[in-house]
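DM between two lab members

TW: hey, do you still have the Pectinesterase inhibitor domain-containing protein entry open?
JB: yeah, one sec
JB: this one, 360 aa:
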Amino acid sequence: MYNLRRTKILLSTLFLTSILFLSLLFSKPHFKNSNSKSPKIHFQNHIQKQVLETAHWACQDTLYKSLCLSTLATFPNLASKTLPQIISSTVSHTVLEVKASSSNCTSIKKQFSKKLSSLQQWALDDCLELLDNTIDELKSAISDLSPNKTLNSNRYYDLKALLSAAMTNQDTCLDGFSANGTAPRSSNVGIVRSEIEGRINTISQHVSNALVMLKKIPGAHKYEYSETMKSEMFPDFGPAKKKFPTWVSSKDRRLLQSSTNETKYDLVVAKDGTGNFTTISEAVDVAPNSSATRFVIYIKAGAYFENVEVVKKKTNLMFLGDGIGNTIVKASRNVVDGWTTFRSATVGEYFFFSSSQLAS
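TW: and the structure you got?
JB:
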């Protein structure tokens, strides 16, 4: 009986000891885990603080600060990005917005194809073309912002010109709908502008923010307009030299300054039939696409009644006439007669260039 009682006591002791040991064993890792989370949370808070500080610094002075902050918050590793990289990411984000807006315009055009007036159809076509141009301009800006390219005066003015053109495109797009604002708001035609306006305005706001951030790039202040530059003939195209922007090559300057009888022409347009063509549009149509060299079209004295459209694939094209009052190009398209502002230009040209290429 004594041995049995002793055995029971011993087993009870062993059982309690085991429970205590297991309790300590399992409670120890839990103690470690609770302590290990603290540095991680602290680290995350530190990174989040850096991201917020970077976003607020980059978005400072922008006109659309809330949009700027919410956009930058979506960029990974924002705190480690340089300002050109932040601008590049903003522009890349804008390209996606432009593509979405283009798809929206295409959908509206298909959905209401039989209910839109001819002017509304043209206005949507204008927007699609302008959005396509915007994508090209923004992609070129992204290329100029790449880390392997050093910011200089030519590249800085390229960036400003490209972003400014991209923003102007959106205003021109919406102008096409303003011309026919008499349609009832409740009709399918009347709601077209309201259906696209939000996306179009967002694109403009993104580009506006990018332009403001551009001024903060280290060294950019050197290229802002001085009083001397403002007094030059072409301040919007950067510093001038001998009345020409500095990115215009000496060869092109000679070409622009030479008289007509000293210039070599690629094509001649003449009303009297003594040239290659009698209309400017015909000459533009046969001009090479994506030309790497200057293509000169000489337009002889005369009055040419036509709307000339130079599409973006007609690069390095140059018109040369016989002077003011001698070579005259005019047409009669206007908004009152049902044309959009974009299509009413007598000579409509997609002006897209890279000053660094032109200077070479």
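TW: got it. The mean pLDDT is 80. Strands lie at 240-241, 244-245, 267-269, 295-299, 302-305, 308-310, 317-320, 327-330, 347-349.
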